[in-house]
Amino acid sequence: MSVTLAIAGRDFKGFFGTPLGWIAACIIFLVSGIVFYIVVQMLLIRGQSIDPVADIFGQILNFLNYINIFIIPAFTMKTMSEDLGNGTYRLQASAPISTWAIVYGKFLGVMLYFGVIGIFMALYPLYSIIFTEPDLKVLLSGWIGFILNSATIVAIGLFIGSFTKNPIISYLGSAFFILLFIFSGFFPGIPDWYRHSVNLLELSSEFTKGMIKTGSIATYIAIISVFLFLCRFVMESKKWRF
Protein backbone atom coordinates (compact mmCIF):
# COMPACT_ATOMS: atom_id res chain seq x y z
CA MET A 1 0.00 0.00 0.00
CA SER A 2 2.84 2.38 0.85
CA VAL A 3 4.43 1.71 -2.54
CA THR A 4 1.15 2.46 -4.31
CA LEU A 5 0.77 5.74 -2.43
CA ALA A 6 4.40 6.67 -3.14
CA ILE A 7 3.91 6.13 -6.88
CA ALA A 8 0.61 8.02 -6.79
CA GLY A 9 2.20 10.91 -4.92
CA ARG A 10 5.13 11.07 -7.33
CA ASP A 11 2.85 11.20 -10.36
CA PHE A 12 0.45 13.68 -8.74
CA LYS A 13 3.29 16.07 -7.89
CA GLY A 14 4.78 15.50 -11.33
CA PHE A 15 1.62 16.76 -13.01
CA PHE A 16 1.94 20.10 -11.25
CA GLY A 17 5.69 20.17 -11.80
CA THR A 18 5.19 20.32 -15.56
CA PRO A 19 3.10 22.60 -17.79
CA LEU A 20 0.66 19.73 -18.49
CA GLY A 21 -1.12 19.92 -15.15
CA TRP A 22 -1.47 23.69 -15.21
CA ILE A 23 -2.48 23.91 -18.87
CA ALA A 24 -5.14 21.22 -18.41
CA ALA A 25 -6.46 22.97 -15.30
CA CYS A 26 -6.63 26.28 -17.18
CA ILE A 27 -8.49 24.64 -20.07
CA ILE A 28 -10.96 22.95 -17.73
CA PHE A 29 -11.69 26.09 -15.72
CA LEU A 30 -11.85 28.26 -18.84
CA VAL A 31 -14.31 25.91 -20.52
CA SER A 32 -16.38 25.56 -17.35
CA GLY A 33 -16.47 29.35 -17.01
CA ILE A 34 -17.65 29.76 -20.60
CA VAL A 35 -20.32 27.06 -20.16
CA PHE A 36 -21.39 28.71 -16.89
CA TYR A 37 -21.85 32.07 -18.63
CA ILE A 38 -23.67 30.62 -21.66
CA VAL A 39 -26.09 28.53 -19.57
CA VAL A 40 -26.93 31.45 -17.27
CA GLN A 41 -27.52 33.80 -20.22
CA MET A 42 -29.75 31.27 -22.01
CA LEU A 43 -31.86 30.72 -18.90
CA LEU A 44 -32.17 34.46 -18.27
CA ILE A 45 -33.23 35.08 -21.89
CA ARG A 46 -35.93 32.43 -21.53
CA GLY A 47 -37.05 33.99 -18.27
CA GLN A 48 -36.57 30.74 -16.38
CA SER A 49 -35.63 30.48 -12.73
CA ILE A 50 -32.13 29.10 -12.29
CA ASP A 51 -31.31 25.98 -10.30
CA PRO A 52 -27.56 26.42 -9.70
CA VAL A 53 -26.99 22.68 -9.41
CA ALA A 54 -29.24 21.06 -12.01
CA ASP A 55 -29.09 23.86 -14.60
CA ILE A 56 -25.51 25.08 -14.23
CA PHE A 57 -23.37 22.52 -12.43
CA GLY A 58 -25.00 19.65 -14.33
CA GLN A 59 -24.31 21.27 -17.71
CA ILE A 60 -20.72 22.04 -16.75
CA LEU A 61 -20.08 18.43 -15.70
CA ASN A 62 -21.74 17.08 -18.85
CA PHE A 63 -19.44 19.22 -20.98
CA LEU A 64 -16.36 18.29 -18.94
CA ASN A 65 -17.18 14.61 -19.39
CA TYR A 66 -16.94 15.22 -23.14
CA ILE A 67 -13.63 17.08 -23.12
CA ASN A 68 -12.11 14.64 -20.63
CA ILE A 69 -12.05 12.14 -23.48
CA PHE A 70 -9.26 14.27 -24.94
CA ILE A 71 -7.68 15.66 -21.75
CA ILE A 72 -7.24 12.52 -19.63
CA PRO A 73 -5.23 10.59 -22.28
CA ALA A 74 -2.56 13.30 -21.96
CA PHE A 75 -2.13 12.36 -18.29
CA THR A 76 -2.16 8.60 -18.84
CA MET A 77 0.33 9.17 -21.66
CA LYS A 78 2.65 10.96 -19.26
CA THR A 79 2.38 8.54 -16.37
CA MET A 80 2.55 5.35 -18.43
CA SER A 81 4.27 5.80 -21.80
CA GLU A 82 6.90 8.24 -20.54
CA ASP A 83 7.83 5.87 -17.71
CA LEU A 84 8.20 3.07 -20.23
CA GLY A 85 10.34 5.27 -22.47
CA ASN A 86 12.67 6.81 -19.88
CA GLY A 87 13.41 3.56 -18.07
CA THR A 88 11.46 4.30 -14.87
CA TYR A 89 9.31 1.20 -15.27
CA ARG A 90 12.40 -0.94 -15.87
CA LEU A 91 13.72 0.16 -12.47
CA GLN A 92 10.35 -0.46 -10.83
CA ALA A 93 10.09 -3.88 -12.45
CA SER A 94 13.51 -4.91 -11.13
CA ALA A 95 12.55 -3.87 -7.58
CA PRO A 96 10.43 -6.03 -5.24
CA ILE A 97 7.28 -4.19 -6.26
CA SER A 98 4.15 -5.93 -7.50
CA THR A 99 2.78 -4.93 -10.87
CA TRP A 100 -0.57 -4.26 -9.23
CA ALA A 101 1.06 -1.68 -6.94
CA ILE A 102 2.48 0.12 -9.97
CA VAL A 103 -0.81 0.08 -11.89
CA TYR A 104 -2.87 1.16 -8.89
CA GLY A 105 -0.33 3.87 -8.06
CA LYS A 106 -0.51 5.35 -11.53
CA PHE A 107 -4.30 5.10 -11.55
CA LEU A 108 -4.56 6.79 -8.16
CA GLY A 109 -2.09 9.52 -9.14
CA VAL A 110 -4.19 10.61 -12.12
CA MET A 111 -7.41 10.30 -10.12
CA LEU A 112 -6.03 12.52 -7.35
CA TYR A 113 -5.51 15.25 -9.92
CA PHE A 114 -9.03 15.01 -11.34
CA GLY A 115 -10.46 14.64 -7.84
CA VAL A 116 -8.98 18.03 -6.99
CA ILE A 117 -10.45 19.43 -10.22
CA GLY A 118 -13.84 17.97 -9.28
CA ILE A 119 -13.70 19.61 -5.85
CA PHE A 120 -13.02 23.02 -7.39
CA MET A 121 -15.88 22.44 -9.85
CA ALA A 122 -18.20 21.92 -6.90
CA LEU A 123 -17.46 25.48 -5.77
CA TYR A 124 -19.80 26.82 -8.48
CA PRO A 125 -23.02 25.54 -6.88
CA LEU A 126 -21.69 25.70 -3.31
CA TYR A 127 -21.11 29.43 -3.74
CA SER A 128 -24.80 29.78 -4.56
CA ILE A 129 -25.72 28.59 -1.06
CA ILE A 130 -25.28 32.23 -0.05
CA PHE A 131 -28.19 33.23 -2.30
CA THR A 132 -30.37 30.12 -2.60
CA GLU A 133 -30.82 26.53 -1.45
CA PRO A 134 -29.27 24.20 -4.05
CA ASP A 135 -30.16 20.51 -4.18
CA LEU A 136 -27.12 18.97 -2.49
CA LYS A 137 -28.23 15.47 -3.53
CA VAL A 138 -27.88 16.43 -7.19
CA LEU A 139 -24.54 18.08 -6.41
CA LEU A 140 -23.22 14.92 -4.75
CA SER A 141 -24.52 12.58 -7.46
CA GLY A 142 -23.07 14.78 -10.21
CA TRP A 143 -19.68 14.80 -8.52
CA ILE A 144 -19.77 11.01 -8.11
CA GLY A 145 -20.64 10.61 -11.79
CA PHE A 146 -17.77 12.90 -12.81
CA ILE A 147 -15.27 10.90 -10.72
CA LEU A 148 -16.52 7.52 -11.98
CA ASN A 149 -16.51 8.68 -15.59
CA SER A 150 -13.00 10.11 -15.21
CA ALA A 151 -11.80 6.89 -13.54
CA THR A 152 -13.12 4.82 -16.43
CA ILE A 153 -11.31 6.95 -19.01
CA VAL A 154 -8.13 6.82 -16.89
CA ALA A 155 -8.28 3.01 -16.74
CA ILE A 156 -8.73 2.76 -20.51
CA GLY A 157 -5.93 5.28 -21.10
CA LEU A 158 -3.52 3.37 -18.86
CA PHE A 159 -4.31 0.15 -20.71
CA ILE A 160 -3.63 1.67 -24.14
CA GLY A 161 -0.56 3.51 -22.85
CA SER A 162 0.93 0.28 -21.52
CA PHE A 163 1.50 -0.93 -25.09
CA THR A 164 3.87 1.78 -26.28
CA LYS A 165 6.76 4.01 -25.24
CA ASN A 166 5.71 6.66 -27.74
CA PRO A 167 3.65 9.37 -25.97
CA ILE A 168 2.01 10.59 -29.19
CA ILE A 169 0.84 7.11 -30.16
CA SER A 170 -0.35 6.59 -26.60
CA TYR A 171 -2.40 9.79 -26.60
CA LEU A 172 -3.96 9.34 -30.04
CA GLY A 173 -4.54 5.63 -29.46
CA SER A 174 -6.24 6.26 -26.12
CA ALA A 175 -8.53 9.01 -27.43
CA PHE A 176 -9.45 6.93 -30.49
CA PHE A 177 -10.10 3.76 -28.47
CA ILE A 178 -12.26 5.63 -25.94
CA LEU A 179 -14.37 7.11 -28.74
CA LEU A 180 -14.59 3.71 -30.45
CA PHE A 181 -15.57 2.11 -27.14
CA ILE A 182 -18.37 4.62 -26.61
CA PHE A 183 -19.71 4.58 -30.17
CA SER A 184 -19.47 0.79 -30.50
CA GLY A 185 -22.83 0.73 -28.79
CA PHE A 186 -24.41 2.35 -31.84
CA PHE A 187 -23.34 -0.35 -34.28
CA PRO A 188 -26.26 -2.20 -35.93
CA GLY A 189 -27.48 -5.26 -34.05
CA ILE A 190 -25.91 -4.26 -30.71
CA PRO A 191 -28.10 -5.25 -27.71
CA ASP A 192 -29.58 -2.41 -25.66
CA TRP A 193 -27.82 -3.53 -22.47
CA TYR A 194 -24.44 -3.25 -24.18
CA ARG A 195 -25.30 0.10 -25.76
CA HIS A 196 -26.21 1.52 -22.37
CA SER A 197 -23.16 0.03 -20.65
CA VAL A 198 -20.50 1.44 -22.99
CA ASN A 199 -22.09 4.87 -23.48
CA LEU A 200 -20.11 6.59 -20.74
CA LEU A 201 -21.62 9.97 -21.58
CA GLU A 202 -25.16 8.67 -21.10
CA LEU A 203 -24.21 7.00 -17.83
CA SER A 204 -22.63 10.18 -16.48
CA SER A 205 -25.62 12.31 -17.52
CA GLU A 206 -27.83 10.22 -15.23
CA PHE A 207 -25.74 11.29 -12.26
CA THR A 208 -25.97 14.99 -13.16
CA LYS A 209 -29.76 14.62 -12.94
CA GLY A 210 -29.52 13.30 -9.40
CA MET A 211 -30.07 9.65 -10.33
CA ILE A 212 -27.66 7.31 -8.55
CA LYS A 213 -28.39 3.84 -9.90
CA THR A 214 -26.69 0.76 -8.50
CA GLY A 215 -26.52 -0.71 -11.99
CA SER A 216 -24.70 2.34 -13.37
CA ILE A 217 -22.17 2.31 -10.53
CA ALA A 218 -21.62 -1.43 -11.01
CA THR A 219 -21.10 -0.86 -14.75
CA TYR A 220 -18.46 1.78 -14.11
CA ILE A 221 -16.66 -0.38 -11.55
CA ALA A 222 -16.74 -3.39 -13.89
CA ILE A 223 -15.25 -1.44 -16.82
CA ILE A 224 -12.57 0.10 -14.58
CA SER A 225 -11.65 -3.30 -13.14
CA VAL A 226 -11.43 -4.97 -16.55
CA PHE A 227 -9.12 -2.35 -18.06
CA LEU A 228 -6.91 -2.14 -14.97
CA PHE A 229 -6.58 -5.93 -15.08
CA LEU A 230 -5.69 -5.80 -18.78
CA CYS A 231 -3.17 -3.04 -18.07
CA ARG A 232 -1.60 -5.14 -15.33
CA PHE A 233 -1.42 -8.12 -17.72
CA VAL A 234 0.40 -6.07 -20.38
CA MET A 235 2.79 -4.54 -17.82
CA GLU A 236 3.52 -7.94 -16.31
CA SER A 237 4.37 -9.34 -19.75
CA LYS A 238 6.82 -6.47 -20.30
CA LYS A 239 8.53 -7.23 -17.00
CA TRP A 240 9.60 -10.65 -18.24
CA ARG A 241 11.19 -9.14 -21.35
CA PHE A 242 13.71 -7.09 -19.38
Overview of the structural elements:
The chain has helices spanning 2-16, 19-46, 52-86, 88-94, 99-121, 123-127, 136-161, 167-183, 192-198, 200-208, 214-239. It is mainly alpha-helical and 242 residues long. It has one domain (2-239). The radius of gyration is 19 Å and the shape is globular.
Gist?
This protein is mostly helical.
What topology does this entry show?
Blueprint: H1 2-16, H2 19-46, H3 52-86, H4 88-94, H5 99-121, H6 123-127, H7 136-161, H8 167-183, H9 192-198, H10 200-208, H11 214-239
Helix pairs in contact: 1-5, 2-3, 3-5, 3-7, 3-8, 3-10, 5-7, 5-11, 7-8, 7-10, 7-11
Subcellular location: Cell membrane
Keywords: Cell membrane, Membrane, Transmembrane, Transmembrane helix
GO molecular function, one term: ABC-type transporter activity
Report the count of strand segments.
0
Coarse structural class:
mainly alpha
Largest sheet: none
Mean pLDDT: 83
Helical stretch tally:
11
Report the span from N to C terminus. 25 Å
Please mark out the parts with pLDDT under 50 across 5 or more consecutive residues, or reply none: none
List the domain count as a whole number.
1
The percent of residues in helical segments reads: over 70%
Strand content: under 5%
Give the helices and strands as they follow along the chain.
HHHHHHHHHHH
Q: So what's the overall shape?
A: globular
Rg, Cα atoms, Å: 19 Å
Keywords: Cell membrane, Membrane, Transmembrane, Transmembrane helix
Transmembrane segments: 20-44, 56-75, 111-130, 142-161, 168-190, 210-235
Domain ABC-2 type transporter transmembrane: 56-192
Organism: Fluviispira sanaruensis
